[in-house]
Amino acid sequence: MMQLKTKLACTLGPSLSSQEDIAEAISLGCKIFRINFSHGDMSFWRRLADDARQAADKTGERCVLIGDLKGGSVRVAGLDRSFTLNVGERVRFSLDGPVNLPYPEFFETVEVGDTLVFDDGRGILKVVAHRGRSIESEAVRPLTISPNKSIVIRGKEVETPDYLKASREGLEAAVSMGLDYVGLSFVKRAEDIDAVRNYLESRGSWMGLIAKVETPSAVQNIDKICEKSDAVLIARGDLGMHFPLELVPKLQKTIIEAAYNACKPVIVATQLLGTMVNEPVPSRSEIVDVMSCVEDGVDVLMLTAETAVGRYPLESIQWLSNIAETYEKGTRPRRTIPPDSEVMDRFALAVVNLAESLAAKIAIFTMNGHMARRIARFKPVGGVIAAT
């Protein structure tokens, strides 16, 4: 297997949790593991992290662990099992009822006539009545409402009063587990990232921050968010709940461009190989999607449901690796710099060109990683070794 420039990441969960399976995932080229803090509890998350580390030790590799925070998302609570609605059937959501949304801000924002979107856009409800802190909604298409699933109001954002407050429990868990990165869900502005970084530094943690771009506000503030974060994740499922689906590919390219200009790694997630949740092979359109990500210079391809709850987790990783390897061979890394770039960007590109002309590797000593990121952005053939 060739050493891929496009890194592979996957989500741990019931389908991929044993040390044996994680070790196999590592052997297939996946060394970045996401733990979704929106599902399970602290003991489950810790077991996943411990098993991933032990599997990496057995294979002689180092793995990277990401804790994906719940953030300010609005999620269904009060359910112990899923239920299905057919077209025209209604459901009542309230602040504290059987199907509850424990977010007062949601009921202050929603109005009669609004469209509610579930499950990465698969489920659609229309709000037909609003009574204080409860609403009645009617299914526009058949859908399943499951415990802890996120819900958005199309065209609107629910303002949570304090991003750090909504994230603190997950941050404490990530610090205690010694994770490498945290994914900041539903970031809206650069100040959200500053608040989390300041809090982590006060706890003596220098964990990396991955800004998940999944709201209209985040798209609007993408340049500042890229500047403040350590990496950017394009959460296509949630973007598709806020925006018309036909706009998501365009938004993806816009975010990739912003991350490239900021010298920050960019991750693409959600439904890369969604067919493989239930089937042993991907669809042809999914292969084209992954190919497009590779050609656009995406740094990390991340599987979510495919490995967390899918029937074919290891096969999904193998397919993702095969597709990335096939199209990396014919894709030259992007070597352009923005017109308003700094002189150090031009220096970094010159270093890469010189190293490749000599078939040499690049080693760099860095205090803050800025020059290392500038060089790594161009994906030099021989790789980059950075030391602090």
UniProtKB/TrEMBL annotation:
InterPro entries: Pyr_Knase (IPR001697), Pyrv/PenolPyrv_kinase-like_dom (IPR015813), Pyrv_kinase-like_dom_sf (IPR040442), Pyrv_Knase-like_insert_dom_sf (IPR011037), Pyrv_Knase_brl (IPR015793), Pyrv_Knase_C_sf (IPR036918), Pyrv_Knase_insert_dom_sf (IPR015806). One of its GO terms (molecular function) is ATP binding. This is Pyruvate kinase. Its EC number is 2.7.1.40. The lineage of its organism: Archaea, Nitrososphaerota, Candidatus Caldarchaeales, Candidatus Caldarchaeaceae, Candidatus Caldarchaeum. NCBIfam families: pyruv_kin (TIGR01064). It catalyses: pyruvate + ATP = phosphoenolpyruvate + ADP + H(+). Pfam families: PK (PF00224).
